[in-house]
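ugh ok fine here u go
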Amino acid sequence: MKYFSIYIPDPKTNPARPPTGAQKEEMDRFVGAAIARGEFLSGGGFLPLRQHGAIVRRTDGVAQVIDGPYAESKELVGGFAMLQYDSREAAIEGARRFMDVAGDGECITYCIAEGGDPEHGC
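structure:
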């Protein structure tokens, strides 16, 4: 089953900043092991939304671009991954292993319905 996961760092204990060389090496080892197990399909970190992206929100038929500032740090996402696991429990365990490397925050993991059909997937 395929899962889409997003990571939101905790701004109090894990503020957004470029990783050190040691942190990058540790994450590279983690991703390499996940690839070897067949779990990691693709992923990456995000550049700061305010400078490099935007949120497009539509309300009552009118679209507006929101590019900050953001009221809540929960709106700042650190990265994403496309993953492959046999079960929800395995996906949860994978998120725990990831956060051992990435640090404090939230890892939100969605199961993807195959072919867009919510009856087929997880």
